Each structure stands twice: as C-alpha cells, then as structure tokens.
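Hi R.,

Here's the chain you asked about this morning:
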Amino acid sequence: MEEGAESINTDPAAGRGEGRVAHWRNLAGFWLLGLCNNFAYVVMLSAAHDILSQQERTDNSTAPTPGPALPSVRSHSHYPVLSWGNGSRNGSRYDCNPISTAAILLADVLPTMVIKFAAPFFIHLLPYGWRVVLCVLTAAGSFLIVSFSTSVGMSILGVVFASVSGGLGELSFLSLTTFFHSGVVCGWSSGTGGAGVLGAVSYLALTQLGLGPRVTLQVMLVIPATLALSYFVLLVRPPSLPNWSQAEGPGGVRPDSADRRPLLSDDSEGSPDLRSTEPLTCKEKLIVIRGLLKYVVPLCVVYYAEYFINQGLLELLYFPQFSLTHSEQYRWYQTLYQIGVFLSRSSLFCFQIRKVWILALLQCVNAVFLLFAVCFQFLPSIWLLFAIVLYEGLLGGAAYVNTFHNVTKESADRHREFAMATASVGDSVGIALSGLTAIPLHNYLCTLP
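And the predicted structure, written out as tokens:
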C-alpha cells in the first residue's frame, strides 16, 4: 500500500441495522450495475462475431469465389480486440493474416468516445431514471438487432447500440456514485472487471450446451432486465438524487465529504461558492477539466499501451512448440488478462494508489518490451508471456479503479458529478489512439518476409 494512501471510510450509517442493510445493498447494486453494463457488451460482441461468421459462410456458399475471412473478436473489460487464428502466413514470418477491416472496433469505440466527450456538458439535463431506461433499451436493442440480423451491416448496428449503452452507462453510473458513499466506486469497478470473465464463460457455456448464438443472445436479454432491477429495486437511492426530474441540485453531498482535497485550489479571486446548487458554468467546467488532466492523461496512456499490446502484439507472439494451438494460446492470453483486470479492479478495499502515472509508465514498459519481443522473437517461454499478460491486466485494472477513486476523493461536492463523468473519457481516447497505431503496425508486421 502506498505510503499516505487513504482507506475507504466505513459508512457512518452502517453502524445501525438499517444503515448496514442500505450500505450492503448499495455495494451489491453497484457491483451488478458494473457487471451488467459491461457484461451485455461482452456477450453481445461474442455472438455478433459468431453470427457474422455464419453470414459470411452463407454468402460464400453461393458466391463464385470465397470472400475475405472476418476477424475474430476477443472481448475485454470494455472493448473488442481484433485477432486472427491460424490462417495462411501469406509469406509472412508470423502466423497471421493481414487485418482486413477494423469495422467492429470502430463501431465500438467511436460512439462511446463521442458520448463521453459530449455528454458531460448536457447529460445533467437528463435525470438518472431516464438515463437508466435509455441504457436498458439500447442494451436490449443490441441483443435483438444482432440476434435477428440478416447482414453484416445490421450486426455492426447492434455493436453500435451496445457501444451507446456501455458508454452512456459508464459515465452515468460513475456520476451516480457521487450520491453514495465512496466505497461503491470499488463495487462498480469490481463488477466491470468481473464482466469480462463471467460474460465470456456464460456465453461459452450456453453455446456448449447446444444453444445457437441467436437463441443464446435472446436468453441474455435477462442482463438489461437485471440492470434495471439493480437500479430501481436494489439501490437505496437518496432523496437528493434527480431520478425523474431536475428539481434537485447538480449533485449530492456525500457522508465523507469533509476530507476532500480539490483538484484545483479554490482560493483564487472569483472562486465559485462550492455550496451553491446552481448549475456549473462553462468556465467552471473548463477549470475542472484542467484539474482532471493529472488523472485522465495517465489513464489514457495506460489504455493506449495495453490495447496496443492486445490489438497489435499478442496475436504475433506464437510458440509453435507449445502443446496449445495458436488460437488456444491467444485465448489463454485473454483469460489471464481478464483475471488480472478483475483482481485489480476489486483491490480498492485493500490498497489505493495515488500516483497513477506510475502505472502508466509501467504499462508503457510492457508495451515496448513486447514490441521488441515481437520484432526479435527472443522470449524463451510462453510461461513468461503468461505472467506478463497477467501483470498487464493488473496494471490496467488498478489504473481504472484508482483513477476514479482519486477523482471522487479530490473533487469538491459541487464539481464531483461532472468530474466523474468527464474522467471516463480517458480510457476511450487511449483505446481509439491505440487502434490508429496498433492496426497499421499489425498489418505491416504480417507482410514481413
């Protein structure tokens, strides 16, 4: 535990019987919100790939010549990673095919990034109850669209709906934590980490039991329903929460607000009154954004480095002498990555890290090391790579949960809701930037003789 790090305070109300029940209901509610927000996307994306593959085979069965192979989509805690199996080398030193399209990746990242950039400036006009309804409808729509899709474009539209649901849900539920005790941030983060593991396992289990991808997807409509129940039934919502109207102020007062350290000092001339319930002005929002950069930039760098690894490098690290096939090795990489993410996103009750930039630096070291490993192929054993991938997931998950914990602890009451929503843009920007570099790099390396 880093010296000087804070512990998560126990809810003062938890000392009473009713307070304890509310405390644990809220922790469980945010865990389920995190799980459902990401779980729906993980499951839908896996099914989207299966249905895309079926559509491609159907098209090829009547076409005069076979079309290009579609990429396999490997689901992560937030976003897909494009990868390929044991395709033809096409003269390359690596066991891969050149990337033919990034449509699935772009369909995922771009809507989420647009929402996260724009929504913090107007989303306060939409009460939380309506936001949750919108998340539930778009998540259910993504399941139904992909389930009944008859074309590649229709399946990609389903991915877009899932992206809208996930992006709106993440910034809304992170903002929602400001109305509750700070411990719910750990519940949310742990749930999002568990979504990658549980989502992939549940989809695999149902399809292995004999259900087709389309039927499995329809069964998974239980996920949006669970999200709605978690918010409307399980959570003990405070009276200050703007659920169906905006009669309340822009944010709630947390029970542990006395120990806040503002992201920027408020002693300058003309500093706003933090006790005011007036909506934030554009000037105030820009000031908050400037103060967030010390956390948003490192989070962006962490996600850039880890998705540079996941999208551009891992598929090229193949050990032909190992007992697992190339595709099986890649599945293990992703499983270990997900386990690392889940463990570190659940770690906030044990320790906190204030200097998130250290995690960004360590993740960049991982990326540079694995880039050299791809270029010069010097890794002696797959077991070493397994350890590195697990470590990569631990760094990524720790950066996520500690970023939002630090933001919520260091934001003034008046600014906290806006700050949490705005900080969520960091991971999406990092992933989008990684795609701009990792995909061309992958294409280039796959053409080397």
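The chain has 13 helices and two strands.

Let me know if you need anything else.
M.
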